[in-house]
Amino acid sequence: MPSPSRHLVDPQLLPLLETFPPLELSTELLPLIRCMPPRRAASAANIREQVDLESHTIAGPPGAPEVSVFVYTPRAKRAPLPCILHIHGGGYVMGSASGMEAVHRPLALDAACVVASVEYRLAPETRFPGAVEDCYAALRWLHAHARELGIDPRRIGALGESAGGGLTAALALLARDRREHPLAFQHLIYPMIDDRTCTAPDLSPYVGEFVWSPANNAFGWSSLLGAAPGSADVSPYAAAARATELHGLPPTYLSTGALDLFLEEDLEYARRLMRHGVPVELHVYPGAFHAFELAEEAQVARQARRDSLLALKRALHG
Hints:
The protein is of the alpha/beta class. It is built from ten helices and eight strands. Helix 5 (about 130-145) packs across helix 7 (about 165-180).
């Protein structure tokens, strides 16, 4: 069968696309996939020398296990610094905070901030609300220990990609509603925020062919929810697009690719945020599929990384 969307892929992204093998997630394959090494190379020695890493074990949600948080601090910057709480992606079923060091060290340096990354529990072993409550525990801990961590508690924001973006959006809702530990901003990179995409009857024929497919999306959401996605009673703290009230959420950066499965749910969420008076910076990158920014030399990927970093600097430093 001919590809419906390959002709739309940015030619500079095709080499990256070839490195993603066709993969359909399953319970049997998941342990093997989790053992695969990170796609990103280790940080250069000069970057490791400029950014300190501390590993902390913190109290988890009530009645739940402790949570690991990795804190990256630039040595040359004077405290207090703004802070990014980073929530990794992986379809709610894979990925790790510890495997993101090659991202976190340069980010702390480039954005002149502390980066804290939370090792939340994965599905299907842990269903909703385990992951988002782990993230909330990390946010609570950052606020409680801001002075000793050298963090300005007024400038703590959250960043996440894919499922990490979904957890970031859910965390922003939770922080708003609990009124305990505010977020200064939410930075969402092709966020996975709507389980109803799995059952949408009129999904664009040009999205979701590459990297993160509808089948994998259904597996991820089913694993998180413990039920078939698309039902009427899914919590907005699981799927942020289910929230009916978006007033009072923090300023939002949202980016996605034009060929990403999450394109339409992300555009709709951005539209609704703006209708509720939330400041939104929205980017859609043509010819781009899920995880396209991993292409080191492609112009569209470089632009996306540059846009993201500039927005983070504005949010962190004003």
